[in-house]
Recover the amino acids of this structure.
């Protein structure tokens, strides 16, 4: 939990310190890479760390991740310019990738199926609390201290987490050392290059340069070439980083696609709802954050109770109920009155968190239970990787939708308002923060334009939820299989037998992983 808190805090704590960092180090034109660089490093290293944890065990990978993270934190605190700070943030991300994937895998290793919803909901609560508290803590440290303390605070937390893990976590790999294959380092580098090029194009496209400009086309073309090279390398590798069975098994491929769509739809509330709350509802930053944070209250509670649902209905039905309810909540957002009250979107976010708690956690548990120890790190990393890529795609896609809507509304504004409205999309937020410089009609028109843009984003998020629903409905097996080395724990935890609706055996008629339980 402490290890996960490190990764969660560092993804948000820097947000409120950006003005002070830029004022001290400069580099306003590239400061977004403080976030993008960290995201890139975490995302592209997830599958690599997953394979390494399957090969060498969880403990050495987790310890390595914490050490890298702490070295990166100390280096960030000593950064002398924006370029060095960005480079050290990437180093932090290299450690963060190990933390995210390995902690989730360890939870599946240590706890039987009956107890996993509880421990996973606790991990979700840690992530939610850290993510919500991060901006406020960053603001306090920056206001009453120095921005460098937002990185130095990681050191005591990380040291305590490292001591606890080294002292008390005893990892016993269940793969014989003599049979461990060499790590596919060429494949790891190819995955890193593919993910880095693709995510750089998605993160920077439409922001740092136009989508159809030479940098975007070169990056996307390079990503395509690197992806082809990755496929060629992985086909020849004895132990590939991203093995083909990740996509050949219905259980894992369906969940990968569904959680990729989840990452896509999550961009709507996490990125655009705070803008809506401030620009349309007129709330301050703290109140706007509260509107979003209520989702993080209902999500872990719903996840903790999800086992009661999927033990009765099955994992597939539980996930379909959750994502179906989430789609309805997202479709309800455009129906909110203008300008409305803060409790209205907050209530929707509370319902959205409850719905997604029923959706995500059962699918993760289903995948982790369908594979043995030697494959669990790779399988867990693959679904987290797809979710991260989905978030990057969502940021690019929904950003384009919002910009297109705002451009259309500004371009078709009444003639008597055009002179008072901003002509640059980047100036919209600034204009609403200083609405006194606008006429009342111009300010209202601009707020309605932002309202329309966010409504269109939420409609896109509802479409992403529909894609997730179809992925589970059409691809996921009716009964999720349970691997042989999970079966005794699952049987013991459920009073002597595995829940019938979850199923036991292989969903592929006998071509599943070695050691899977026989069909029932």
């Amino acid at each position: 939990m402490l290890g996960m808190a490190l990764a969660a805090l560092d993804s948000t704590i820097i947000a409120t310190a950006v003005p002070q960092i830029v004022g001290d180090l400069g580099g306003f034109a590239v400061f977004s890479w403080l976030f993008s660089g960290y995201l890139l490093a975490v995302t592209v290293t997830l599958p690599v760390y997953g394979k390494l944890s399957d090969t060498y065990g969880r403990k050495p990978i987790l310890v390595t991740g914490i050490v890298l993270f702490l070295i990166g934190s100390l280096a960030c605190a000593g950064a002398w310019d924006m370029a060095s700070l960005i480079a050290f943030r990437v180093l932090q991300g290299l450690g963060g990738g190990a933390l995210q994937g390995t902690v989730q895998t360890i939870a599946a290793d240590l706890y039987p199926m009956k107890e996993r919803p509880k421990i996973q909901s606790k991990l979700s609560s840690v992530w939610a609390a850290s993510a919500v508290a991060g901006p406020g803590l960053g603001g306090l440290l920056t206001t009453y201290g120095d921005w460098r303390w937002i990185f130095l605070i990681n050191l005591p937390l990380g040291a305590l987490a490292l001591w606890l893990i080294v002292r008390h976590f005893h990892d016993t790999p269940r793969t014989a050392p003599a049979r461990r294959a060499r790590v596919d380092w060429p494949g790891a580098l190819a995955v890193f290059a593919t993910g880095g090029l693709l995510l750089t194009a998605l993160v920077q496209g439409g922001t740092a340069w136009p989508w159809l400009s030479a940098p975007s086309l070169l990056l996307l073309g390079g990503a395509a070439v690197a992806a082809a090279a990755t496929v060629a390398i992985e086909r020849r590798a004895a132990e590939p980083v991203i093995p083909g069975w990740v996509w050949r098994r219905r259980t894992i491929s369906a969940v990968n696609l569904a959680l990729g769509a989840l990452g896509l739809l999550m961009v709507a509330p996490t990125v655009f709802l705070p803008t809506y709350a401030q620009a349309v509802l007129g709330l301050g930053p703290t109140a706007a954050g509260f509107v979003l944070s209520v989702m993080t209250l209902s999500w872990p509670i719903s996840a903790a109770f999800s086992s009661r649902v999927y033990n009765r209905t099955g994992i597939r039905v539980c996930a379909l109920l959750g994502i179906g309810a989430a789609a309805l909540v997202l479709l309800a957002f455009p129906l909110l009155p203008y300008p409305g009250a803060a409790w209205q979107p907050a209530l929707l976010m509370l319902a959205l968190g409850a719905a997604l708690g029923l959706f995500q956690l059962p699918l993760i548990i289903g995948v982790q239970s369908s594979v043995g120890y030697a494959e669990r790190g790779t399988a867990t990393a693959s679904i987290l990787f797809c979710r991260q890529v989905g978030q990057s795609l969502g940021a690019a896609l929904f950003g384009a939708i919002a910009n297109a809507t705002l451009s259309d509304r500004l371009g078709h504004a009444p003639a008597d308002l055009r002179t008072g409205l901003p002509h640059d999309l980047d100036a919209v937020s600034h204009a609403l923060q200083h609405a006194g410089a606008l006429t009342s009609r111009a300010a209202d028109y601009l707020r309605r334009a932002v309202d329309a843009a966010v409504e269109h984003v939420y409609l896109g998020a509802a479409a992403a939820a529909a894609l997730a629903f179809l992925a589970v409905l059409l691809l996921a097996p009716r009964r999720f299989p349970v691997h042989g080395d999970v079966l005794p724990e699952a049987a013991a935890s459920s009073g002597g037998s595995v829940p019938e609706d979850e199923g036991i055996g292989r969903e592929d008629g006998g071509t599943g992983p070695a050691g899977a339980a026989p069909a029932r």
Q: What stands out?
A: The chain has a mean pLDDT of 80.
